[in-house]
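User: I'm preparing a small set of examples for a lab meeting where we compare how different chains pack in three dimensions. I only have the primary sequence for this one, and I'd like the structure in token form so I can line it up with the others. Please keep the answer compact; I'll paste it straight into my notes.
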Amino acid sequence: MTSRFINLPGPSEILDSGDRSLYEVVTHRPGPVGELPLTDRILRDRPSGDAFGMTQDAGMGWRPSGLA
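Assistant: Understood. Below is the structure token output for the 68-residue chain.
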């Protein structure tokens, strides 16, 4: 009689590549140099999401001086 079961690899054989460098994650980097070009007009007249977006963009590496 033949077996109906297939010998499948276990989860660790599928998910573990053996590459330990996957765990060497950089979690801290220096922040951007400069300051956001926030003006009275931006803070009063534009949606708060604009200022928030500028901080996010600068945090992702955009030059703060070019975000106005």
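A couple of notes for your slides: The mean pLDDT is 88. The radius of gyration is 25 Å.

User: Perfect, thanks.
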